[in-house]
Write a structure and sequence with these properties.
452 residues; 14 helices; three-stranded antiparallel beta sheet; Creatine Amidinohydrolase, Chain A, domain 1; 35% helix; Creatine Amidinohydrolase; single chain; six-stranded mixed beta sheet; alpha+beta
Length: 452
């Protein structure tokens, strides 16, 4: 297992992209109250953690880019030691220990932030922050700039430029280094074991939440800190709801269960979907559509390699799925025409309405543009698809979802199938991170036949 990421190197990489002498300010996430005297489990801001490795709340990172003879600096503001509060809430590193352990040039109490920023932002050419993404920090920044402006009679000026740091860090995060890949591989192994556990626990009449409990137990038992997102445990008609997460239905004999679940380990997510029959045996219609989705996933996996475009992976899956819809009577050749017409007119969309992939990393839908030239806004849809590079991590998750409708063969009604794995783009192709969860019909049925 590769060691922990080099947070100092990441900070240096970001500073190298900033204007000389400028300042970057990034805050972590706030604590959020759940109800009286109880907070939601705390989870740090991903970008803040990416640059610091620091997981406590009430913390701010300030980076000062070097200029002329002045060296660059990385400064952490965090909570002071407080023995009384630590009895109730747990350890606080405090500024001095945080400076040493996390290798900052300086660390100061969070209560000193306002006074220090009025100094740090004086006469600098630009300030970098997450523009319009953090209301609390936006309000603080206005106060700090006002403090600097009030010094104008002394010849001190506020920064003339305000710049968004988000695109710079997002691009850094798109490519995962060896340490990140090692963590994500372990997260994939834990998540795969959880899917296996759920399959083994399944019986007709089980409740979806009971299967969810098996997943959560396996995550935590193996050291994962959280689920990476709310697990989807969708049976029967619920399998056709893409983001279903009520997980409270009783599964009937003969139905499929679609589980989309992954753990978060040391700040990194896994994302796996498996679909299987609760009684352990696929019916003929279930098997026909399952084999179709599996073939679509294989076509998409075959397209993952350096230099291939991100959207070519989706196109490969769509071509297989659309042909299968024609072959299985979900789409009519008389109405929709041959395969190329089905694809051009997007006639497959009623049965496959989502993309095949997304970036994966600290966030389950991780940061980074999918097209060249910027984010995917309306104009960006016309920009060229981004080529894949070694170290990028993405999901491969084709699916098919058949709701009852006129003209749709009844044998396929309420069948929703998705098969999802995580891959790292590697020399000559890709490396699979989630192979521990079985996905062929033979392997799933064999596993479930071994249930006690």
């Amino acid at each position: 297992m590769t060691g922990r990421p080099d947070f100092v190197q990441r900070r240096a990489h970001l500073v190298a992209q900033m204007e000389p002498g400028s300042v970057a300010v990034l805050a972590t996430s706030p604590e959020v109250a759940r109800n009286a005297d109880s907070d939601y489990p705390y989870r740090h801001d991903s970008t803040f953690y990416y640059l610091t490795g620091f997981t406590e709340p009430e913390a701010v990172l300030v980076l000062v880019a070097p200029r002329d003879a002045q060296p660059g600096r990385a400064i952490l503001f965090c909570r002071e030691k407080n023995p009384a509060r630590e009895i109730w809430d747990g350890l606080r590193h405090g500024p001095e220990a945080a400076r040493t352990l996390f290798r900052f040039d300086a660390a100061w109490p969070i209560d000193a932030l306002d006074d220090q920023m009025a100094v740090l932002l004086a006469d600098v050419p630009a300030v970098y922050c997450k523009l319009a993404r953090d209301e609390r920090l936006d309000a603080q920044l206005r106060r700090w700039l006002d403090s600097v402006r009030r010094q104008g009679r002394s010849g001190i000026r506020p920064p003339p430029a305000l710049r968004d740091v988000t695109p710079l860090v997002d691009e850094m995060r798109v490519v995962k280094d060896a340490a990140e890949q090692a963590i994500m591989l372990r997260a994939g192994e834990i998540s795969g074991a959880a899917h296996v556990r759920a399959m083994r626990a399944a019986r007709p009449d089980v409740f979806e939440y009971a299967l969810e409990a098996e997943l959560l137990y396996e995550f935590r038992r193996n050291g994962a800190q959280f689920p990476a997102y709310t697990p989807i445990v969708a049976s029967g008609p619920n399998s056709c709801i893409l983001h279903y997460n009520s997980n409270d239905r009783q599964v009937r004999d003969g139905e499929l269960v679609l589980i989309d679940a992954g753990c978060e380990l040391d700040g990194y997510a896994a994302d796996i979907t498996r679909t299987w029959p609760v009684n352990g045996r696929f019916s003929a219609p279930q098997r026909a559509l399952y084999e179709l989705v599996l073939a679509a996933q294989q076509a998409a996996l075959d397209a993952v390699r350096p230099g291939q475009t991100f959207h070519a992976v989706h196109d490969a899956a769509v071509r297989v799925l659309a042909q299968g819809m024609l072959d299985n009577g979900l789409l009519s050749r008389d109405k929709h025409g041959p395969l190329d017409d089905v694809i051009a007119n997007k006639a497959y969309m009623p049965f496959y309405m989502h993309g095949t992939s997304h970036w994966l990393g600290m966030d389950v839908h991780d940061v980074g543009a999918y097209r060249l030239g910027g984010a995917d806004d309306l104009a960006g849809k016309e920009k060229p698809s981004r080529p894949l590079r070694e170290g990028m991590v993405l999901t491969i998750e084709p699916g098919i979802y058949v709701r009852p409708a006129e003209g749709v063969p009844e044998q396929f009604w309420n069948i929703g199938i998705r098969i999802e794995d995580d891959v790292v783009v590697a020399i000559g192709g890709h490396t699979l991170l989630t192979g521990s969860a079985p996905k062929t019909v033979h392997d799933i049925e064999a596993l479930m036949a071994e249930r006690p």
